Amino acid sequence: MTTWRKWLRRHVPASLKARMSVVVFLLVLGAVASLALATLAVAERGMRDVTGRQQYVSLSSAAVFIDEELDAKRNVLRAMADSLAAGGAHDGASLQRFLAAQTVLSKEFYSAGVVGIDGVVLASVSPFKPQAGLNVKGRPYFEQTLATRRSVISAPLNGSISGMPIVVVTQPVFDAQGGVRYVLAASVNLRQPDFLGRLGALKPGPGGYLYIMTSAGVIVEHPDKSRIMQHIEAHGPISIPTRRAMQGFEGWLTGTTSQGVDALFAYHRIASTDWILASVYPMSDAFAPLHAIRSKILLAAVLLAALAGLAGWRVVLRLLQPLARLRHQVHEIRRHRLGIDVLQIERRDEIGDLSRDFYSLVAEREIAEAQTRGSERRLKLLTDHVPVVIVYIDREHRYQFINATFEKWFGRSQRESLMQSIRDVLGEEAYQLREAYLRRAFAGEEVEYEFTIGGEGEAGPRAFQTSYVPDVGESGAVEGVYGLIHEITKTKAVHTALQSAAATDTLTGIANRRRFDEQLAQSMQRTRAARAPMALAYLDIDRFKAINDSLGHKAGDEVLKEFAARLVRSVRASDLVARLAGDEFVIILEGVNGAAEVRQVGAKIIDAIRQPFALASGPLPVTTSIGIAIFREGALTPAQLLDLADQALYAAKGQGRDGVALLEAAP
């Protein structure tokens, strides 16, 4: 679309007079050409129907002619059969003399012979030397003649002696009792010039042609004699009309030949053989007169449109003279060379109305500009001193307004950024972050999102919140988007600190019960999805009450903090260590390989805790008992898994404390 507009700007004159003349030219050209082409299209459709019907009627006549030709050949054999039955010739020599006496055979057939009912050829005449002992028993045309006791025309086949493509016409010879005594068989050479006589004279047009094929697609007759006896698909895929004809269709169709030529196709069945007579008539031949007329009509349309454009140009030139004068006056006023009093306000036509409206517009604009300049000065003073970035973005995602805070926060020049795209000002990565939100805003939705930019030195990352508010015009369309950007770095820091405090045990600094409950549910869900086992370890400090009673709560708190620290050091960074209450601790171990690995982790923790705790009162030996529940899959709830780990802990204590016990959750 952009390339087309550029071409129009380069080649179409800019003046209104020239454009109106071009429009008149194009309208006349389009109207005349459309009418002419529509008329020709209707004529072509009508001509196609008439031509198609003519082709089918001509083909029907040709099919009757072919039937008559084939019947004539049958009648020749029928007359010979009657003569042979009445003549009493029975030995090979007399049969040979009988055939030699039939002069009509050489005119109608390529070769002929007398065949006994056992299939042995008793006598024959042909251009080739007879083959001794030739037997045709088993051949379809011979067996069919004996079975039906009627004349048969064979399918196309290759002659066993001549090697030529032929069809065989048969006629049974009956004895006095009505039984078949001989079979007369005569062949027709399909490659002799137009074996059906005048068929070539019926071809449609200089580029059209007729051909004959069997219902199975084997070509019987064709202008290209090399294609005889070949399948119709031997030279590539066949056309759709031809395929329909092989399926039983008779009539005419339009389509495309295997060579890509648009043509009229007609098909008719030959009754005596069930062969298909077909004609192909190229459209270029059929509609050549119409195509010649079309170019002449289009040339006439161009000439008529050119004359109309020239006449329109002269009329437009005269009508637009007052408008040209007004244009010159407005041009001079804009450059402050003339005052607005020179306008043609005394005229009583459209030019006068335009002059008076322009006069009023200029006067009102001067007043409005003075008021606007004051408002803009106050607005700029206000927007440049608020601690919020304010921008206005047009539909091409360009900045049309930026306040001074934008330059202070993001280090982009306010003056250089105006009328520049977001991509050019902030870079591709920043634009990709904003693009989806901008599209939603231009769709009429108020949008809020947050983003972070890296700070330098001690400043660290800075967080911002952006609000996009659509500017909806009077037409209801979004004309632009207001953007308001607030810095929320301190607010985010406070929020993060509060979240951390809410999920952290105040004494030990590890996760608390709330964080543990959230993490356990998520871990079990991931375990089910990944089908990788996890483990939940439940621990407490052996005889912790005795430590509190003997050393006091302060020493007990020191033990709890050191205990938590040793647990964290004993497991992976991805494992969650949490304190439930008192001296009860839990560890979530995701992605473990099985019970052996879990036991190793438990043994590592046992060894880490056995090292004496350094307290103010001196070294203190401490031990722990660990119950571990292994979870793989199933509908177990977090509470049930925790209860299973608690049962394992009791089992560990029952074994004498300072040890590990494992239980595996049932699937």
From TrEMBL:
It is found in: Cell membrane. Residues 317-370 form the HAMP domain. One of its GO terms (molecular function) is diguanylate cyclase activity. Its EC number is 2.7.7.65. It comes from the Bacteria. It is a multi-pass membrane protein. SMART domains: GGDEF, PAS. This is Diguanylate cyclase. Keywords: ATP-binding, Cell membrane, Kinase, Membrane, Nucleotide-binding, Nucleotidyltransferase, Phosphoprotein, Transferase, Transmembrane, Transmembrane helix, Two-component regulatory system. InterPro entries: Biofilm_reg_signaling, dCache_1, GGDEF_dom, HAMP_dom, Nucleotide_cyclase, PAS, PAS-like_dom_sf, PAS_4. Residues 375-445 form the PAS domain. It comes from Janthinobacterium kumbetense. It is an enzyme of class 2 (transferase). Residues 532-665 form the GGDEF domain.
